[in-house]
Amino acid sequence: MIHPLVRLLATEPQLVVEHVGAYAELIESEAREVQRRTVLRLALSLFALCCLGVAAVLTGVALMLWAVTPALSTQAQWALGAAPAVPAIAAIVAGLVARRPSAERAFASIRAQISADMKMIRDAGAA
Predict the structure, then answer these.
(1) Which residues contact 63 (CB under 8 A, 6 or more apart)?
(2) Which residue of 14, 88, 94, 115 has the fewest CB atoms within a 10 Å radius of its CB?
(3) Is the pLDDT of residue 127 over 70?
(4) How far apart are CA 56 and CA 88, in angstroms?
């Protein structure tokens, strides 16, 4: 007895070609989504790194200002700490968002489609 998949390949090859084309479209869309997530993660990481550099520079400036103006009023001292704190907080938030794992696995729909196809082939072979 001929396996149903072999019979389908022999009698209706256009169906197999359409199925392979659908796989190609699915892979292309999944690859685009993975690329989009990777670019976003890279952009957030670069933003965090830049904010960290700005925070370091502002910390140095604040320390120098504090050193040369020891009689700075207590009302203005908070600004010396707030200036580098803003980019430091932005760097922490961007870094945490960039490191957050994706809720969706890469190529999950392709794995699901392959599993469904393999189940269909096994069921057809068993019949």
Answers:
(1) none
(2) 14
(3) no
(4) 8
CA distance 45 to 53: 12
**Span 14-41, pLDDT tens digits:** 888 898 899 999 999 999 999 999 999 9
- Helix axis angle, 13-68 relative to 74-99, nearest 10°? 160
Considering Cα of 41, then 43, then 29, then 5, what sign does the dihedral take? negative
The amino acid occupying position 124 is A
82 CB-contact burial (10 Å; exposed 0-12 / middle 13-18 / buried 19+): exposed
Quickly tell me which residue has 């469904």 as its tokens. Answer: 116
Q: Which residues, other chains included, contact 72 with Cβ-Cβ below 8 Å and sequence gap of 6+?
A: 65, 66, 80
* pLDDT digits 0-9 by tens, 42-90: 999 999 999 999 999 999 999 998 888 877 777 778 888 899 999 999 9
Measure the CA–CA gap between 8 and 17, rounded to whole angstroms: 11
